[in-house]
Write a structure and sequence with these properties.
The chain is α/β, with parallel strands linked by helices and about 240 residues long. It is built from six helices and ten strands; from the N terminus they run βαβααββααβαβββββ. The N terminus is likely disordered.
């Protein structure tokens, strides 16, 4: 069961979200692991389209490592863009500036250095917009989190190494980014950077690798604050 219904599940007093967003690993089968994996991936894509075409709110897709590979290539990037559209972009929703990046270009850009450089230059331009103060909030969406629980934690598979991590966190915080929403970890996690910028890691709606249960995160935006809550699928009324 996908856990997704044609209508977004609402609890008493809630309003329908402006959009839903998947923070990466939209499909599971790798795009660069041979013909068998590609055939499985094609079937997963058909299932994805069938399920989410029924969703009655817009769906935003973020690129993850299972979407273009741990080391993206021109071929895997082209395939992703053909299936899902741009792998980096920004948009404005009710006065909130939303930036979507492809964290794979920071994880391992060795096969796509030109694309990675273009992506990073584009991010600079978006951060200038965030820094302008034109919007009430500026937030970032990505797959791999900069850290899991603390900015100074050791390097593990699921985060980024130092000093690159610190440099990027400072770059984003200095631009006024207040929230960073990530996936990748298959567990809930997160923490704060400089008491100004919160990083939130949301577990999967599917495979869990810790003690969390399948679910999704509801984000509520007010004029001067953003709050969020992880909702388990088992707690949703059918």
């Amino acid at each position: 069961s996908s856990g997704i219904n044609a209508e977004w599940p609402l609890r008493p007093g809630e309003i329908k979200p402006q959009f839903a967003i998947m923070c990466g690993d939209i499909l599971d089968a790798w795009p660069n692991n041979g013909e068998v994996a590609l055939r499985v991936r094609d079937k997963q894509y058909v299932d994805f389209q069938k399920i989410f075409n029924e969703l009655d709110i817009p769906l935003v897709c973020v690129c993850g490592n299972h979407d273009v590979g741990n080391s993206p290539t021109q071929e895997t990037v082209d395939k992703y863009r053909s299936d899902f559209g741009d792998d980096w972009f920004s948009f404005v929703c009710n006065g909130v500036f939303c930036i979507v990046i492809n964290s794979q270009y920071y994880h391992d850009p060795q096969f796509v250095p030109e694309i990675a450089a273009e992506h990073d230059s584009w991010l600079d331009e978006q951060l200038k917009i965030a820094r302008s103060g034109k919007y009430k909030h500026s937030i970032l969406f990505q797959h791999i989190p900069w850290f899991l629980n603390a900015p100074d934690e050791p390097k593990v598979y699921y985060n980024f190494p130092q000093p690159f991590r610190e440099n990027m966190l400072k770059r984003l915080s200095d631009a006024g980014i207040s929230k960073i929403f990530c996936g990748h970890y298959h567990r809930n996690a997160g923490g704060w950077y400089n008491d100004k910028m919160e990083l939130i890691v949301t577990s999967a709606i599917g495979l869990q690798q810790g003690t969390d249960r399948n679910g999704f995160r509801v984000v509520s935006v007010a004029e001067k604050s953003i709050s969020h809550e992880y909702v388990e699928l088992d707690n949703i009324d059918e």
